[in-house]
Amino acid sequence: MSANTSDAEEEILLYAAFDDSIDVNHFRSIHVLGINESNPIIQMDDTFFTGEYENALGTYMFFEEDLSAQSEDPLLDRLPKKNLKYVTKTRKLLEMKQAYVTAKEDQDIQCDSIEHDSAVEVVSFSNLEAAQEKFRDEFKLEKAEAQLKLPDTETEVLKSS
């Protein structure tokens, strides 16, 4: 655990398995949502994947390239082109499947089915400027009415004593 990590945080690596046709290196941005939930979502650019935790058969190990690898006997020992060193292991497996996101259809029908409170007035505007003007005028009116209703504090105090 690093010095910046608090006692309440714990870092756990897990292995996320995608279809063979997915090359993670081609994506520019990766966002993970709900990693602690039973079905996390991973968004890579505009592509979405839903995951499901599964029991791993064995242990998944993580390696990184070892740039400081040296041979004890440079004459007889030959180092491979790429040397790896062990980092950590995990037993968490997240099986990812591509999800297809579609826009909701009939948005107006869904809005009509919501029951509106009779005290709330439904207002529609032709553009943003008209809405801003309407609310600006109403705010000024409410502010003026509130100032008229404020009691004069000196008169109130005299009446109560």
Sheet having the most strands: 5 strands, mixed
Could you say which structural class the secondary elements and strand pairing correspond to? alpha+beta
Top-tier CATH class of the largest domain: Mainly Beta
Mean pLDDT: 75
How big is the Rg?
A: 31 Å
CATH architecture designation of the largest domain: Sandwich
CATH topology of the largest domain: the name is Immunoglobulin-like
Question: What portion of residues belong to β-strands?
Answer: 25-35%
Number of contiguous helices: 3
- Report how far apart the termini are: 67 Å
The parts where pLDDT drops under 50 for at least 5 residues are: 153-161
Q: Name the shape in a single word.
A: elongated
Your description of this structure?
- The chain is an alpha+beta fold.
- The chain folds into two domains: 15-99, Immunoglobulin-like (Sandwich); 125-161.
- It is 23% helix and 29% strand.
- It has three helices and five strands.
- The chain has helices at residues 107-113, 128-149, 153-160, and strands at residues 15-17, 30-33, 41-44, 47-65, 84-99.
- Strands 1-5-4-3-2 form a five-stranded mixed sheet, with no helix packed on it.
- A hairpin with a 7-residue loop joins strand 2 (30-33) and strand 3.
- The chain is elongated, with a radius of gyration of 31 Å.
- Residues 153-161 have low confidence and may be disordered.
